[in-house]
UniProtKB/TrEMBL annotation:
Residues 19-273 form the Class II Histidinyl-tRNA synthetase (HisRS)-like catalytic core domain. One of its GO terms (molecular function) is catalytic activity, acting on a protein. It comes from the Bacteria. InterPro entries: aa-tRNA-synth_II/BPL/LPL, HisRS-like_core. This is Class II Histidinyl-tRNA synthetase (HisRS)-like catalytic core domain-containing protein.
Length: 276
C-alpha cells in the first residue's frame, strides 16, 4: 500500500510537471532544460555567482569549479549569454539544490524591459496556479529592492545583524544598532498604510519606484488574490533582484508557494517560480 501511494505521488508530480510545460508551450513560451551540474571559470564569476556560491554544493577539479544548480534564474541568464539565446519568454522545470534542501521548481522568465509584458507573464503564472493546480492564493507580498538601499548605507545593508532584525521587525534591536533617529526607525514608526507617503515625503527620488510598486500591487489585486500587501521593509531573498519582487502564499501557509521578481540580464527581466 505504501509503495502504491509512493508510485501515485511520483506519477502525480510528473504529470504536474508535464502539464506545466505543455501549458506554457501552448502560450508561446520556449522550453529549456539544463544540466544539474554547472561549470564555472574562477576569473568569470559574477557578483551574483559569488553570492549564490555560499549556499551551493561545489567542488573543484583542476582549475575548474563545479556546483550543483542552486538557482534556475542564474543558470538561465548565464546560458542565455553564453549561447546568445534570443527567446523572450522561457519556461522550465527541474530540481535545485542548496546546502540545506532540495526543491523542484516550475518557473518562467521573460527578458524585456516592458512592465506590461512582465505583468502579463505574472498573470500567466497565477492563472496556471489557480486553474491547473487548483491553488487558491490567499496573500501576495510585493516589495521593491530600491527602497531599503536608499534608507540604509551599503555597510548597514550587508550587516547580518541588521538584516536579521529587519526580517524579525525588531525595532528595539534596530534602535540599539542604528540609533533612534535613523530613518529606518522613522519608517517603522509609521502604519503600513502611511509608509509610502513617508518615503515620498522624505525621499522624493523614490516616487517612481513607489508608483511602480503600486502598479504591481493593483495588478495582484486584480488577479483575485485575497490580500495584497506592499511591504516597504522586505529584503529580497535573491541578490540579483534589482526592482520589484513578489511572494505568493496559499491559504494558511507560512512559506510562499511561488516567488520571483525583476532582475538585470542583458536588459531588465522578470521571473517567477513555483516550488513544486
Amino acid at each position: 500500500m505504501d509503495e502504491m501511494m509512493t508510485n501515485e505521488s511520483l506519477l502525480a508530480k510528473k504529470q504536474r510537471e508535464m502539464g506545466f510545460l505543455h501549458h506554457f508551450h501552448h502560450l508561446g513560451y520556449d522550453l529549456i532544460d539544463l544540466g544539474v551540474v554547472e561549470k564555472f571559470e574562477w576569473t568569470q564569476l559574477s557578483h551574483d555567482d559569488l553570492h549564490l556560491m555560499l549556499n551551493r554544493h561545489k567542488w573543484q577539479s583542476g582549475d575548474k569549479l563545479f556546483a550543483l544548480r542552486s538557482d534556475w534564474t542564474n543558470a538561465i541568464v548565464r546560458y542565455r549569454k553564453q549561447y546568445h539565446l534570443r527567446a523572450d519568454k522561457i519556461a522550465y522545470s527541474g530540481p535545485v539544490y542548496s546546502l540545506l534542501k532540495e526543491r523542484h521548481q516550475l518557473g518562467v522568465e521573460t527578458f524585456t524591459d516592458s512592465i506590461p509584458k512582465q505583468i502579463e507573464v505574472l498573470g500567466d503564472m497565477i492563472t496556471f496556479m489557480e486553474k491547473e493546480l487548483d491553488l487558491s492564493l490567499s496573500v501576495a507580498v510585493v516589495s521593491h529592492n530600491k527602497l531599503l538601499k536608499k534608507i540604509l548605507s551599503p555597510r548597514e545593508l550587508e550587516d547580518p545583524s541588521v538584516r536579521k532584525f529587519i526580517c524579525e521587525r525588531n525595532q528595539d534591536a534596530l534602535k540599539h544598532r542604528l540609533g533612534a533617529n535613523h530613518p529606518l526607525i522613522g519608517l517603522m514608526d509609521k502604519a503600513p498604510t502611511e509608509q509610502a507617503g513617508y518615503l515620498k515625503e522624505n525621499y522624493p527620488e523614490l516616487t517612481g519606484h513607489l508608483n511602480e510598486l503600486a502598479e504591481w500591487e493593483a495588478t495582484l489585486k486584480s488577479k483575485n488574490v485575497d490580500y495584497v500587501y506592499a511591504d516597504m521593509l522586505a529584503l529580497p531573498n535573491q541578490s540579483y533582484y534589482k526592482g520589484i519582487f513578489i511572494q505568493l502564499y496559499g491559504e494558511n501557509q507560512t512559506e510562499p508557494v511561488a516567488s520571483g521578481g525583476q532582475y538585470t540580464s542583458s536588459s531588465k527581466a522578470f521571473g517567477m517560480a513555483i516550488n513544486n
